[in-house]
Amino acid sequence: MKMEFKIKHTWDGLPVSHEPVTIVLKSDNAGLLMEVHAPFFNDPPAPLGEPGKPFSRLWDYEVVEAFFLSDRTEHYLEVELCPHGQHLLLLLSGKRRVWKEELPLEFEVTRTKTKWEGKAHLPWNYFPPSTNKFNAFAIHGSGEERKYEALHPVPRHELREGQKPDFHRLEFFKDLNLKGLMGEDWKQPESDIWKSLTN
Q: Which helix (H) or strand (E) holds 160?
């Protein structure tokens, strides 16, 4: 079983001008396997961090991001993956309120001149209880040419003059049915990490 998502629009709802970034979610031993299939722009240049390790402010580079949200609590997991092998995982409690970051991740990348693929093993322990919403994003380019793309963009009628891209508009996330992926009898395993926040 798998779920597949294609990022076909910019953050404000215009069609992207290249092969869309594809994200595939599959069940993994102790969590979800997130696969990324994306064009490789190599712009901006690689972060100076070691591949395979967390890198702070990775969103300033070329990245693909996935957000897993529990809409009841506004708790969410943010996963940022870079074609150069760095990653950044954040846990947030309320919009933009990071309470844990740079979590370890098993992440492999293969890259050619024009494409890259990543595989990230996301343990259930990182997911907030009752995860039920999802959005995904891709960023590349530098300066004026920087592009922000979204799986579920801001609806055109919601746009305001001078608005900037904001990936934390949780109200535009869409349903993620993990039971559809894991099986109807599946229950999301409890998370020690999230428990430590609520106790």
A: none
Q: What is the DSSP letter of 178?
A: H
For residue 146, give both structure tokens: 């920087």
Query: Which helix (H) or strand (E) segment is 198 a member of?
Result: helix 192-198
Joined tokens for residue 149: 């793309």
Q: What is the DSSP letter of 167?
A: T
What backbone phi and psi angles, to 5 degrees, belong to 107?
-145, 125
pLDDT at 159 > cutoff 70: yes
Please report, for residues 91, 163, 168, the alpha-carbon distance to residue 28 in angstroms, rounded to integers and kept in the order given.
20, 38, 27
DSSP output for 62-120: SEEEEEEEETTTTEEEEEEE-TTS-EEEEEEESTT-EEEE----EEEEEE-SSEEEEEE
DSSP, res 54: B
Residues in the chain: 199
Q: How far is CA 4 from the centre of its chain?
A: 13
Q: In the predicted model, what is the mean pLDDT of residues 30-46?
A: 97
Q: What are phi and psi of 176, to 5 degrees?
A: -125, 110
Chain segment 87-144, per-residue pLDDT in tens: 999 999 999 999 999 999 999 999 999 999 999 999 999 999 999 999 999 999 999 9
Q: How far, in Å, CA of 136 to CA of 149, rounded?
A: 8
Task: Quote the CA–CA distance of 12 and 185 in Å, as a whole number.
Answer: 37
Nearest to 38 by CA among 17, 18, 12: 18
